[in-house]
Automatic annotation (TrEMBL):
Pfam family name, one: DUF150_C
Protein name: Ribosome maturation factor RimP
Chain intervals for the UniProt region annotation (Disordered): 164-183
Keyword Chaperone: no
NCBIfam families according to UniProt: PRK00092.2-5
Length: 183
């Protein structure tokens, strides 16, 4: 899920150690576009789930150095490093645990219970399964993590409030400069 194609997965093998050495985790990597206008999109965050503009710039510089040296992509491409955002993709088991109680959409690589797409409230993880409370179902469904090809949080008021609360907490933890310190 973090990489969709074989080329994505190969780039992850190259870039995961770079991100980790810089203090970040790659949430998702996608190489998109045709031969001439390709874009390498990397969503990343710190292990505690933060990613500010300065973090994006720092990781972008570290990745650029390795990409320039290894040259794993033929032709030109644009590198885009960003945070996963509020309505983020869920690509790791810890994402499903961290966002328990929030609504998500899952797409599977196979048909289960007559369908490939599911939407419901995340209910945590159990072993290698994602627990999800599906609308209209009495019991919590357990979906094998290995079956999930794409998962994403649904933008809700509750999720936006969580994002705002996390941002406010980060700002409260950041020392503010006084006018004397700026001079």
């Amino acid at each position: 899920m973090r990489g969709k194609t074989a080329e994505d997965r190969s780039l992850l093998e190259l870039l995961d150690p770079v991100a980790q050495a810089s203090g970040y985790e790659i949430v998702r990597l996608r190489l998109m576009g045709g031969e001439h206008a390709r874009r390498l999109q990397i969503m990343a965050e710190t292990p505690d789930g933060e990613m500010i503009v300065e973090d994006c710039a720092k990781l972008s510089r570290a990745i650029s150095e390795v990409m320039d040296a290894a040259d794993p992509i033929s032709g030109e491409y644009t590198l885009e490093v960003s945070s996963p955002g509020v309505d983020r993709p869920l690509t790791r088991m810890k994402d499903f645990a961290n966002y328990e109680g929030h609504e998500a959409r899952l797409e599977l690589d196979r048909v289960a219970d007559g369908r490939k797409r599911f939407r419901g409230m995340l209910a945590g993880v159990e072993n290698e399964n994602v627990a999800i409370d599906l609308e209209g179902e009495a019991e919590t469904a357990l979906v094998p993590f290995a079956w999930i090809v794409e998962a994403k949080l649904i933008l809700t008021d509750q999720l936006m409030k969580r994002g705002a609360d996390e941002r406010a907490a980060r700002l409260a933890d950041t020392p503010q400069q006084t006018p004397e310190q700026e001079d």
